[in-house]
């Protein structure tokens, strides 16, 4: 029986939940404006978010909203309260699209992958090409529906209560629902790199070519006097977002293309540039603080002229002084949180439609919740870079694209589980 339940927000968040983080996650999950999400969370009264749900759909909504940090409950239908214009709609799936768990064909034999034909299917995903089978079929069905209806809205069909919720006019770009950031096991730090290698293996030539093209562009831009390096810092998040969009296409069964490198220039570009600006300003502030701390050390040794004399004793005295070590520690203590806020910001903006500030806030929280996996990830990444640099640096042609793709795999793991 359907239409017997409604989902009610009590007006309160769960204990120890940051309202700003919850609002950003709520907006990213349901594709609504952040100001509207904040208005809902700050209403301080009960709001009916959705009614007319069957039990399965209602339980699914409740699970997703509770993961975000909202206190909700299910009730029988009552007159709908005002929820600031918010409408939560389940994602529509094409008629006949199979459920994600369905992987058995006629006769009880395992059904092959619709893309590569492999029989190695586990958890609704192909272990060889990596696609999510239900998602791949849904894309194909939407394309067929669109072609058959002369360009009508793709994906029109029977509503699937088990699909990820979304806002009414904004389809999700990624499989599953944004329920993070969540903490993941220590071993996932290596799994991010391994999955990054899977992305590279699907289109190795294009990944390597795209990375080389970006390195070449960076070198050329850096040659521009005064502003070259600033331009590189500003557009770096846009380029990283392009890599993330390409990796997301692979996750959905498509290919990584060279055009993906510039895809960030057509997806929330202003917010991506703002991230680059905030990161640049942060690094400048850190450099000024560290420089000011070192000035006293230089002055005690006779100023910059003492260093220009290239006396080894003076250099050793500077490098071994407590002030120098304190400056390094202070710089690291400031730079690491800034990097944490920057790390997942490009995919959160390009793929989850968050603003720059919300994306950096969620990126920081996601990294903070996964310090141990990031420790393993960092150590393994450093080891791979060292090994890749040994054979005349040629190994870096594999290692660097793999690390770039691993940013996406970490994002998927932490924010979409």
Report what the structure shows.
There is one protein chain. By secondary structure, this protein is mostly helical. The protein folds into three domains: 5-90, Ribosomal Protein L30, Chain: A (2-Layer Sandwich), CATH 3.30.1390.10; 106-158, no CATH class; 188-416, no CATH class. The protein contains 15 helices and seven strands. The protein has helices spanning 19-30, 34-41, 55-68, 133-148, 188-202, 204-222, 228-251, 269-300, 304-308, 312-319, 322-343, 345-350, 356-368, 371-389, 396-416; strands at residues 5-13, 47-53, 70-75, 88-90, 121-122, 125-126, 165-167. It has a three-stranded antiparallel β-sheet with strand order 2-1-3, covered by helices on one side. It has a two-stranded antiparallel sheet with strand order 4-7. The chain has a two-stranded antiparallel sheet with strand order 5-6. A hairpin with a 2-residue loop joins strand 5 and strand 6 (125-126). Helix 5 packs across helix 15 and helix 8 runs antiparallel to helix 11 (322-343). The longest helix has 32 residues, at 269-300. 36% of the residues are buried.
């Amino acid at each position: 029986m359907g239409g017997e339940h409604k989902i009610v927000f009590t007006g309160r968040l769960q204990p120890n939940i940051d309202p700003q983080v919850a609002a950003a996650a709520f907006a990213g999950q349901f594709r609504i404006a952040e100001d509207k999400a904040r208005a809902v969370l700050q209403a301080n009264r009960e709001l009916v978010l959705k009614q007319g749900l069957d039990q399965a759909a209602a339980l699914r909504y409740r699970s997703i909203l509770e993961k975000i940090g909202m206190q909700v409950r299910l009730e029988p239908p009552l007159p709908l309260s005002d929820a600031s214009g918010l409408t939560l709609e389940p994602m529509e799936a094409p008629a006949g699209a199979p459920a994600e768990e369905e992987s058995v064909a006629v006769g009880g034999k395992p059904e092959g992958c619709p893309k590569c034909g492999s029989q190695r299917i586990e958890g609704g995903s192909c272990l060889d090409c990596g696609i999510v089978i239900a998602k791949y079929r849904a894309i194909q069905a939407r394309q067929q529906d669109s072609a058959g209806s002369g360009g009508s809205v793709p994906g029109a069909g029977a509503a699937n209560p088990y699909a990820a919720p979304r806002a009414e006019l904004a389809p999700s770009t990624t499989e599953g629902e944004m329920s993070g950031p969540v903490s993941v096991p220590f071993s996932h730090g290596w799994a991010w790199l391994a999955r990054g290698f899977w992305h590279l293996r699907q289109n190795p030539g294009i990944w390597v070519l795209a990375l080389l093209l970006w390195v070449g562009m960076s070198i050329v831009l850096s040659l521009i006097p005064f502003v070259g390096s600033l331009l590189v810092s500003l557009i770096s998040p846009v380029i990283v977002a392009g890599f993330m969009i390409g990796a997301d296409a692979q996750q959905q069964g498509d290919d990584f293309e060279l055009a993906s490198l510039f895809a960030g220039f057509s997806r929330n570009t202003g917010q991506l540039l703002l991230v680059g600006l905030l990161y640049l300003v942060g690094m400048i502030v850190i450099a000024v603080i560290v420089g000011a701390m070192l000035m006293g050390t230089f002055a005690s040794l006779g100023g910059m002229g003492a260093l220009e004399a290239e006396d080894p004793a003076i250099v050793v005295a500077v490098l071994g002084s407590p002030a120098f070590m304190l400056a390094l520690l202070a710089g690291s203590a400031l730079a690491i949180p800034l990097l944490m806020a920057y790390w997942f910001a490009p995919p959160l903006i390009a793929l989850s439609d968050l603003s720059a500030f919300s994306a950096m806030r969620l990126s920081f929280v996601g990294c903070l919740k996964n310090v141990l996996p990031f420790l393993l990830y960092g150590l393994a990444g450093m080891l791979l870079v060292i090994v890749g640099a040994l054979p005349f640096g040629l190994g870096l042609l594999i290692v660097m694209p793999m690390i770039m793709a691993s940013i996406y795999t970490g994002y998927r793991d932490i924010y979409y589980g």
